[in-house]
Amino acid sequence: MTAISRNDPEMKAAYRKASQTMADFISHLTVGDGRWCSAKLCFKDPDESDRLGEDRLLYWWLEFATYHADEGLFSAEFTELPSCLEPYHHIGQRLTFEGEDVFDWRVSTDGRLYGGFTIRVARQRLRDDEIAEYDRYIGVTEYLDETAP
């Protein structure tokens, strides 16, 4: 996890880009060819919020995203969980949410990344000697400019 100011202009631009391309994310979700689809959601960090007396937010990726066209809703599941959310959620738990709740989306197929706008911002802030390890960790070999499948 990395602490990022909620006023970070590059991250705000990444959130806007994700919001503007939600139709492309839905297109990926409906392809059904084994693409790895994820959504980044916002959660309140209860411990830090209580300690500081103000809302502290945590952005977390949920995996195996799907789109439920009949309801116009998305769902995805926790595959990792920060300790601050353990009292409230569990690995394998699936959440249902609206498109406006998505702060970022990513689709990976054969190492090629669509979306992942906040990932791109984080990557460009790394030192040159950290980039290859980061790419290996997240399983990306190519960052695509297009967002549609």
Could you please describe the fold and organization of this structure?
The protein has 149 residues and is α+β, with helices and mostly antiparallel strands. The longest helix is centred in the N-terminal third of the chain and has 12 residues, at 9-20. Helix content is 32%, strand content 28%. It has a 7-stranded mixed sheet with strand order 4-3-2-1-5-6-7. The chain has one domain. The mean pLDDT is 93. The protein starts with 8 loop residues before the first helix and ends in a 6-residue tail after the last strand. The chain contains 5 helices and 7 strands, in the order ααβαβββββααβ.
Silhouette = globular
**Poorly predicted ranges:** none
How big is the Rg?
Answer: 15 Å
Spatial order of the strands forming the largest sheet: 4-3-2-1-5-6-7
Number of domains: 1
Give the helix tally.
5
Oligomer: single chain
What's the main sheet like? 7 strands, mixed
Topology pattern, helix = H, strand = E: HHEHEEEEEHHE
Break the fold down into its secondary structure elements and pairings.
Blueprint: H1 9-20, H2 22-31, E1 36-44, H3 46-52, E2 57-68, E3 73-77, E4 94-97, E5 104-109, E6 112-115, H4 117-124, H5 128-138, E7 142-143
Which features does this protein show?
7-stranded mixed beta sheet, 32% helix, 149 residues, globular
